[in-house]
Structures are given as structure tokens and as C-alpha cells.
Amino acid sequence: MSDISKDLALFNELVEVLLHEEKHNPVAERIEANKLYDSIDLSLNDAPLIDEDFKSILKEVIISTPKTATNLFFNQLFGGRQSKAVLGDLLAVVLNNSMYTYKVAGPQVGIEQEIIRQSCDLVGYGEHSNGTFPTGGSMSNYMALVMARDAKDPDCRTDGMTKPLVIYTSKESHYSTAKNASFAGIGRNNIRFIACDSEGRMIPGQLEAQIKVDISKGFIPTYVNATAGTTVLGAFDPIDEIADITKRYKIWLHIDGAYNGGVIFSKKYKHLLKGMERSESFSYNAHKMLGTPLTCSILLVNDKKQLHDSFSNEADYLYQTDGDDFNLGKTSFQCGRRNDALKFWTLWKSIGTEGLEQLIDHQFELADVARAYIRNNPDYTFYSFDDSISVCFNYKNIDPKALCTALYENQITVVGFGSFNGDTFVRFVTINANNSKKDILNFFEVLEGFVEKTPSLPKEIEVLVS
């Protein structure tokens, strides 16, 4: 038996360990961070490790790693596991193609381009649109910002920045905007954070007022980042109203749909992105609402010339055959790039666009189940709203940070907390499309049972008695 055959057999054995752990120990056998290196032998040794010892350590690592696909993991903006997508990812690993040229990727280039073409159609972009697969949502936003910068100041590509560019995003947007402004040479101090309404959506009137102020001071408005699913409340900025403003002032509009951009697949919820076809760029993460393994991020542009102008660079040692449309390295930020498209393609191909729509709709249905439970139970305080898969609440006025930490440390469930307008609360996300109504209700049962057994949990507001 070849080495690869032996290792694939070992892989199958280890997967069985993982699946058993997910069923019987759905969080993890948590190891405190300061005890990690004393608990598992993670050291790298000079001599080879015999097979049984190697297998034993791998099992320990698997058992101690948080299980993000289980029905008690609600912490991050991803979760669950779509098996056909896992199949595609495993094939991509074994094939090990890089995606910069057709010469080395072959039909994988066609797979990536088909996903991009279909995605552009769903957004409503025209015949000159295209896109790429960045390394994540933050990188998607960065590439959009670079294109916006270059469109407003074309000489920047050769001479460096010479104009006082400013950019705009909501106060509830993803933190990557601040990092990206620094990387792009625009500067963090040239970001304008626009106020949001009571549901966490950017207020268009505030955006336009700020643009007018900046113009009067000699700044050049360059880029507006609108969010399709804010990280805490899951709010959708009003795209159509924002597009009215960006068109009026000739500003690049990017839609950061990393979290909830997957609603482009849903006829029922696509209205949340009304006006998206008027944007210059759009991004979404298939590793979030669509359940593909990390990472799988798609950046789309309404005019592919912008992508080529900002990221193309000649390299005779690399681009030796085929045309630019098949040499994807000319529109990508990086050169060597793993194949993130195949896993999404195997999922999409196997269940169809209708199947992807069902995945999206089901997550909203699960959120409706959670909201109904909270609203019908007087022990809960509700902080979010409909048309979101982020369900925010407090239980019995317990400090949400303390509650989430205790649930995690006691290996009960994994859920996070967030803040908005001075309130802090548990943020429960229903992004795992493999969950059922029973799993959602089970979460609340588990939470309530833990609180009952743990009377020492601190209240959010301690009342001092004199």
C-alpha cells in the first residue's frame, strides 16, 4: 500500500473519531490556554514518530478542538458542515492546483469562472462583470478599497497617493475597514464612521451630510462600504438609498456581504439587498451562510477592467500560455492561491441553486423559532429584530459576558456576546443550516438548565444595598 493510501485510511479512522466526538461531546474537552503545552505533546521532534504514537496524538488534538459543525456551536458567523462541499475541499487538497494560470489549473479555472458568472447574474451585474476568490472577507473588502482608490486616483498605482481621499462606512461595519484604510495608504483618520438607526443600519442622510462637509474641506470622497449583515445585529444597510448618494457624488459603492450576502440565492430574502446591482463591487462568503469549509470568499466587480487595472502585473516566467481570461493570477491579489472554488462548486452542482436557496431560507426559519421562543418567555429580554439570523437577548438579567464564558468553560455550548447602543447581550446565530427547530429549542433548554445549576452567575447590573 502506498503512503497516500495509508494516510487516507488513517484519515478515515480519524474522521470517525471526530464524528463520534461531535455526537457525544459536541463542544470539546476544553484545555485551559495556559495548560495547553503541558496537556498535549505539540512539540516538533528530531526523530520520526512511530505510527501508533502519531495516531494517538492526532486523536488527542481532534478531541480537544472545538467542534464547529455540532448543534451546540453558535459562536461564530459560520457553523455546520455541507458534506458535498467537504468532498470538493478534500479533492482540492489532493489535486493541489494553484489558480493563477490555466496551464496549472485547467478546468478548475472554468469552475471558478462559472461560480463568478452565476453570482454576477444573481447580483444583477452586466456583461462586463467578473470577480475573483480572495482569501477571506477582509481581503475582499481590501481589494474593493484598492480598486476604489485607483479609480479615483489612477496615478496612485505608479506615483503613490497624492490626493486627500476619504472613505465611509457605518459604525456597525466590520473592523477590517480600519485595517484596510491603513494598508491602502488612505489612513485610519480618513475614515468617516456614519451613524446607524435603531436596527444598526447606516443612515443615508448622515452619509450625505458628511460627504458635503468633506467636499467643503477639500477632501475627495472615494469609497462607501455598505454592509449586508452587520457582525452583531445582522443588519442590512439600505443599499438603494445609499446608491442614490454614491451615484450623485461619483463614489465607489462596495457591499460587504461576507456574513449575509448569501441572500442573493433566496427569492424570499433578496429584497434585503434591493439596489445591489447599482454597486461597483459586492462580496460574500460561501463559508458562512452556504456552509462550505473555510475559506471560500467571492469578490464580484461590475466592471472587470477595474479588477485588471488594480491587480494585473506582467510576469513572463508565469503567464506563458492562454489568454488573460484564463490566467486568473492577473486579477488576483496573490500569486500562488489554493483552489477555494471547487468545494463551493461541488455543493452548488449537487444541490442546485434551489438547494442553496433552501439553505438560506432555513436559517431565517430557525431564527424565527428562536425569536418566538424569546418573545414568549418573560425571563428573556429581546434586543434584535426580524429578517436577521442574529438573535440577540439576555436571560434573567445575567451578565451576558459572564454567561457566555461560563457556558464555554464548562463545555456546555459555545455562543458569543455583542453590544449595540450601550446594551450588551448574548448573540445567538442560526447560521448552521443542518440544525432543526428541535436543536434551537434544545439550546435554550441547555442554557436554562445551566443557569439553574449555577446560581453564582453575576447579574448584569448589581443593585447595591446601603
Summarize the structure.
The chain has 466 residues and is of the alpha/beta class. It is built from 15 helices and twelve strands.
Describe this structure in words.
There is one protein chain. Helix content is 42%, strand content 13%. With 466 residues, it is an alpha/beta fold. Among the domains are: 3-65; 98-346, Type I PLP-dependent aspartate aminotransferase-like (Major domain) (Aspartate Aminotransferase, domain 2), CATH 3.40.640.10. Strands 2-8-7-6-5-3-4 form a seven-stranded mixed β-sheet, with helices on both faces. The chain has a five-stranded mixed β-sheet with strand order 1-11-12-10-9. The longest helix is centred in the last third of the chain and has 35 residues, at 341-375. The model has no long low-confidence stretch (mean pLDDT 94).
How would the blueprint of this fold be written?
Layout: H1 3-24, H2 36-39, H3 51-64, E1 73-74, H4 83-95, H5 102-105, H6 107-123, E2 130-132, H7 137-152, H8 156-159, E3 165-170, H9 176-183, E4 191-194, H10 204-216, E5 220-227, H11 239-249, E6 252-257, E7 281-285, E8 297-301, H12 304-311, H13 341-375, E9 380-382, E10 390-395, H14 400-409, E11 414-420, E12 423-429, H15 437-453
Parallel strand pairs: 1-11, 3-4, 3-5, 5-6, 6-7
Antiparallel strand pairs: 2-8, 7-8, 9-10, 10-12, 11-12
